[in-house]
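QUALITY CONTROL LOG
STEP: pairwise intake check
CHECKER ROLE: data steward
CRITERIA: each record must contain a sequence immediately followed by its structure tokens, with no blank fields

ENTRY 1 OF 2
RESULT FIELD BELOW
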Amino acid sequence: MNVHENARLTPLGRERLIGMIAGGMSFSRFGAVCGCSAKTAAKGWRRYEQEGREGLQDRGSRPCSLRKPTPDGVADRITALRRQRRHPAPGALARQAATGCTRRGP
């Protein structure tokens, strides 16, 4: 996974987090030093405790599942319409696909 250029903590930064917190630094102090929240620091520590070094790696932000995903037929229509036009406006695309919705599931 690529590291986002504005990412506050990379896997290397999270390793630093583990060392500093193991050395006695508080989550809030670490957050202030590294530009992240205490909640983010605590989340990194928790993942390290549960998963070891593997828990320090980057993760995707896509949800594992959706409550009401777009049906496959509708998604196929939307994909076909997107290929016909370079960048259709979301509202126009929804009208053409007859979905009534401007968002799409995975």
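ENTRY 2 OF 2
RESULT FIELD BELOW
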Amino acid sequence: MSEGKFSGAVTGWLNMNKMNELDQKFFWWEGDVLVVNILGKPNASRDAIGKPKGNQLKVSVTAKPQNGRATDHMVRFLAGEFGVAPSSIEVVFGRMNVNKQLRIKAPTHLSPVFQVQATLLD
């Protein structure tokens, strides 16, 4: 990994942690965009949305972590889960790291874990 990519990933991760020190939400809305902090688990036995872990949502995928392929697979998996095209999901940071932030434009479906978290925050 080049120094530029490394420092960008570290900066993104640090910003995510600073942003969430006061607030343990793993997601929030910016207009019609759902922003989600992800803790990825590549090479899993199945693709699945797991439980929140601190300020991140655990997402497991079957793809191996090679050259960003697990993240690409995760985007395709989550696109189906949220009812959007894969092109509607932007990887803000963490393409080659387990710590990620995604922006999902206008999701048409939310996993129950999002509804539970939203209820807890009300």
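INTAKE CHECK: passed for both entries
DESCRIPTIVE NOTE, ENTRY 2: The beta strands are 27-30, 33-41, 48-53, 56-60, 89-93, 99-105.
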